[in-house]
Amino acid sequence: MKKEEESFLRKVKPIIFWDGFPVCALLIKKVADKFKENLIIVATKSRFPFAEPESILEHDIIWLNNANDIWKYKNKFNDRNFIIHSGWIYKGWLKYDKLMKQRNKAMVVVAVDNRFRGDFRQLLGALWFRLCLKKYFDAAIVPGKSGQKLMRFLGMDPDKIYTSLYGAYEGIFKETVLIEKRAKEFLFVGQLNKRKSVDVLLDAFKNYRRAGGTWTLRMVGDGPLKNTCHGDGVISEAFAQPQDIVKKMNAAKVLVLPSRDDNWGTVICEAAACGMHIISTQSVAASADIIQNNTNGIVLENISSSDLEKAFFSYENMPKSRLKEGSGISKAIARRYNSEAFFNVFMKMANASPNTAI
User: Fold this and answer.
1) What was the pLDDT predicted at 294?
2) Same domain (yes/no): 161, 84
3) Domain containing 268 — which CATH number?
4) pLDDT over threshold 70, residue 315
5) Global pTM value
6) What distance in Å separates the CA atoms of residue 312 and residue 316, rounded to the nearest whole number?
7) If both were cysteines, with which of 69, 244, 324, 351 could 64 make a disulfide (CB 3.0 to 4.6 Å apart)?
8) What is the arithmetic mean of pLDDT over 139-167?
9) Claim to verify: residue 122 and residue 221 sit in the same structural domain
10) Separation of alpha carbons 242 and 189, rounded Å
């Protein structure tokens, strides 16, 4: 089997493109370790960059100023036969896909992080995908259940849709402090805006404290509602690097992400990997993948101040035994979305190609 794997690793010549290289892109660490210089990683910079991704991956990253610049590299990367890239909006990548399919019979996997909404825009998108885009892609990789539903809706064959695009890199996000030894604190990490329901969160927490609640709320991030993040029990801090975020996650018991709209919500998985409980909403796609309702978290059906306040008090009165049980469940679920999980899916996709299969 070892010889077969070594032959496979030589045969597959992968290129991975990640638009706005996020922390969760570190999930390719094991792929990089296995494929070494045979793997090409291409990316654009994130609006919220984190320090030294290449040092963590121990692999070079080719940084593009614009995603479409891949077309300039078509001759340099003309031997690729397994392609994974973000989305389908970049014509440069679609041209490159077509060329590599013709030249090397390359397998092309589109990475999609949108969630299923079933609205008119996605209905039009389904027509466009079936008529114009589906021919470019052999498979799709998505974060979780909502992404699977979306790609089926758009017209991708169900057996060609893979999960584990997003998750929590275990080299950073892990438990270092047992939940029973952490502060009685709710933690929010993200952009401070209305899409993340920061307005509702602060209103609910204010009412919770007025009604006798004793926990604190730590708000980590920046955004237009930054100046509203103050009051009794509220601690406001600026955007932080992942290594600092994980310390804050290991100092608090419950992550709160009550977004009105979130394609996945990677921070939920990162918090789960640290053994946190989670309060979130149905409109955060990761809730369906990470949270077992009333076990390792609470999924709110409605984004309302009153429902969120009730959730706060649920934790105010929760026995330590339930906190400990839920923490263990969070960690177990998060392991389904770590670098090992991504590597296994990567190998499964590569093996599905008749051009690269063992």
Assistant:
1) 95
2) yes
3) 3.40.50.2000
4) yes
5) 0.95
6) 6
7) 69
8) 97
9) no
10) 11
